[in-house]
Predict the structure.
Amino acid sequence: MLTIPDSAESLAVGHRRARWAIIGLTANAVLAIAAVIVSALDIWRLTSLASRGNIPDIDTALEDTLLFTIWLVQAAIGILQVLALIFTVVLFLLWIHRAYGNLLLLGVQKQDLKYSPGWAVGWFFIPIANLVMPFLVVSEIWKASSPNLNPLDSASWKARRTPRLLFIWWAFWIVSVLLGQVAARLIMASETIESNITSAWVTLVSDLGTAIAAVLAALIVRGIDRRQKRATY
């Protein structure tokens, strides 16, 4: 391990940020699972009411006490999800910034890195590019954090394959985000029980994807943090 005080402190800061990011991601996963359960109840109740044929529209459906309660719980969970997402995004990006900066402290040459700590975070905010670049940033952090490799020989860590875990994480994240946008539009346009059931299904799948993506992201953060702690550069 590094013995230089400021380097050791920087790595320690990265470790603390990793723990907080994992806490945030775990909270997002728990809330997403709760949202999935409530969406399932929503679908069940709406389907039950629709099968009776006496619920012509959403306004009438609101007179059903159970359905109204389910929608209130959905709204509350939705607010908590937004707050947790903001909290987690901040923590995750703080960790990204530090984890990428630590690569230089671990001995990786600046010219061998494609980005910088600032751009490692900045790519998350650039439309279209943020569909791919954040994945590439995390992939580079993972490979350059490989323990027991010579950091001066860039080929030694660049040749490493990006783990399948990262591909699966990013696929679930992109799909969940896209479905979340579709669900939001469907909810706004829903005027019948049938359309509301459709939006509930899309919401359920989106939240399930979010939960899986959050768990996988937590595993990635923990994996990179452990790799940087084990590095012997």
